[in-house]
Amino acid sequence: MAATVLPFQEVKAPEHWRTVEFISDLHLQEKDLSTFAIWKSYMQETTADAVFILGDLFEVWVGDDAAQKHSFLEQCKSVLAASAAKRFVAFMRGNRDFLVGKSFLNACHVHDLNDPAVLHFGDQRVLMTHGDEACIDDVDYQSFRRLVRSDEWQKNFLAKPLSEREDIARHLRNQSESHKRDVNAVHADVDTTWAIQMLDQSHCTSLIHGHTHKPADHLMGLSPQRVRRVLSDWDAQSTKPRAEVLRWSESGQVERINLSPR
């Protein structure tokens, strides 16, 4: 089994940073304005020195030009830009928004994160990933991922008219929903051997990721310092609303903050 090989992109926190926060899997979309409202308020009001968005901020992304055509995406862009003017904001692509381009991030003054990447915060080294690459038991998805992450596929896709790209995205989304409803389908979790290998290669003790929508802390071996922390997805419209932030202090204290409606 092959894990990503060093070197990792590294973000070194300035000495004045005291708190950083992590979010993922918000799946922002125009038909869910309640989740957007919670995220907007959070991005405006957080006191963290940095916010790391670890993938799937958007439900779908078919190209940076879409942000110029849809007012909802323009609103998202404004929220990102306003927050980035106050603090360090970084974005890592997920399986839904892997086509977010550098032009959009630059326009928002948001830092572009590779997947995976390492945060060096005080005396802590934290490995960050979206998590989809680690679900290796889902063989069909991994094959699809390799295809759509290739430069050739992305070049050909982005060359299509916007309306055609949106039709393709809707078709893929429908396939994904059917897969979720299939009781025989593989719903893989992050592979433990993969995670340990990545921690070893990156010289980190903690792994933070999203993607699986299964928020929890998992010990990796016998050391209590070696932990895989899974971020929550956000969904304010669910019967059990979810909107959780993982806050990490310079001292090493970690807490989960629930922003969902009570």
Please explain how this structure is put together.
The longest helix is centred in the middle third of the chain and has 20 residues, at 162-181. The protein has helices at 33-45, 71-84, 102-108, 139-148, 151-158, 162-181, 192-202, and strands at 9-12, 19-23, 50-54, 88-92, 111-113, 117-121, 124-129, 206-209, 216-219, 227-230, 244-249, 254-258. The chain has a single domain (10-258), classed as Metallo-dependent phosphatases (Purple Acid Phosphatase, chain A, domain 2, 4-Layer Sandwich), CATH 3.60.21. The protein is an alpha/beta fold. The strands form two sheets. It has a six-stranded mixed beta sheet, with helices on one face. The chain has a six-stranded mixed beta sheet with strand order 5-4-3-2-11-12. Helix 1 (33-45) packs parallel to helix 2 (71-84). It is globular and about 50 Å long. Strand 9 (216-219) and strand 10 form a beta hairpin. It contains seven helices and twelve strands. Helices cover 32% and strands 21% of the residues. The model has no long low-confidence stretch (mean pLDDT 92).
Question: What best-fitting shape do the alpha-carbon axes yield?
Answer: globular
Strand order of the largest sheet: 1-6-7-8-10-9
Beta fraction: 15-25%
Classification by helices and strands: alpha/beta
Q: What is the N-to-C succession of helices and strands?
A: EEHEHEHEEEHHHHEEEEE
Distance between the termini: 43 Å
How many structural domains can be distinguished in the coordinates? 1
Radius of gyration: 18 Å
Looking at the structure, the CATH topology is Purple Acid Phosphatase, chain A, domain 2
How many strands appear in the DSSP assignment?
A: 12
Low-confidence stretches: none
What is the CATH superfamily label? Metallo-dependent phosphatases
CATH architecture descriptor: 4-Layer Sandwich
Q: What's the tally of helices?
A: 7
Class in CATH? Alpha Beta
Task: Report on the biggest sheet.
Answer: 6 strands, mixed
Query: What percentage of residues falls in helices of 4 or more residues?
Result: 25-40%
Whole-number mean pLDDT: 92
